[in-house]
Amino acid sequence: MADVLEEIQGEIRDNKVVLYMKGTPSFPMCGFSAATVKVLREIGAPFKAVDVLAEPEKREAIKEYSNWPTIPQLYVDGKFVGGCDIVREMHGRGELAPLIRSAVQAA
Amino acid sequence: MVNPDEIRRRIEVALPGARVEVADTTGAGDHFEVQVAAPGFAGKGLVEQHQLVYGALGTLMHEIHALSLRTSAS
Q: Which chain A residues have a beta carbon less than 8 Å from that of B67?
């Protein structure tokens, strides 16, 4: 379990925007993952997608890492932002785009 | 097969004074929309509010396939 947690820490540290999801951005395998990808594409910032269906051990480890029981999970600038509900709620209030753009531009 | 009343009960126990609405969106007992307005959320961010609800639901989370959650402090 330790190495998968290290792998997660590396992914979150080395990428400004990381989405742990079911499937891939072009072939999401769950409605919530697809809706989150849609929001990120609307914002237009690059993001690293991690398909937890392809890595079952990581699918469980990420839930422990963030104390969040579901997938998808979005991380910006090393911090957990939320799942689909929170991403959509923040986007609806116009809070997500500035958060992501400032993180990406700061790179 | 999760009973909506059980979802409501666990949240009300964990968050005194909460107003909880639970909708089974497919009738199959595993896709739910839940709204929680709780004084206990005041001053907490959305992530923390949702974590409090997930914590209240505990093991039920393993039986719930899809949970759409909206929370607010009032």
A: 70
